[in-house]
Amino acid sequence: MTRSVSDSRVPPKKTATEHIEEESVTERIVTQIRDKIICGDLPPGTALTEAELTKAYDVSRNTLREALRQICREGLAVHYRHRGVVVRTLTRTDVRDIFRVRRTLELQALALPGMPDPAVLHAMAAACDAATQAASQEDWRSVGTHSLRFHQHIVEMIGSALLDQFFRTILAQLRLLFSAAPDERRFQLPWIERDRALYDLIVAGEHKRASKKLSDYLDRSEEALIDLL
User: Fold this and answer.
1) Which of 5, 37, 131, 143 is 20 to 30 A from residue 190's alpha carbon, by CA?
2) Integer Cα distance of 41 and 45 in angstroms
3) Where are the annotated segments for Disordered (predicted)?
């Protein structure tokens, strides 16, 4: 017996607009989960529970599952059979890989001729000020978040939206490493002045000195994180 085209059991094909809307909802969820990781709200080992997240984001399980698959593809979570999706715990190998990317993008940004966009410089200054303010309130997790944002703005100097998006994932992975610090104050405190000194060189147009300082900065940061693991 042939099935009628009007058979209600055959799901209708989605229109192009519906596909775009579904993708945009999925991307919104991915962005929000990634941002929560960057802010330190989802440390390694946190379970990303389907039931809780579908309710929190008011989406279908299929949409939520696609978002979680994307988070896993970005290296921010792992899917375990019978356990579900869990925020990743990174390794020393991950640290080395993250810093290869950081050196490539951040040093490239400082090697560009001319002055950066004033809006980017303003955002960098605001991140430095916010880190100082957070330190005065003993909010060391926020200090780390503002430092990550500062380095996001360095990559924004390149002027590529695709690289900006990619680098947000790198910063989220970096945040997962911060959680290994037994003393958050001791770990975060030195970077406040180092970010400020780097900003001052960038504003002064001291490209070579800024690149040298950033290179030293990244070496120190990498080794500090390796020592935590």
Assistant:
1) 37
2) 12
3) 1-22
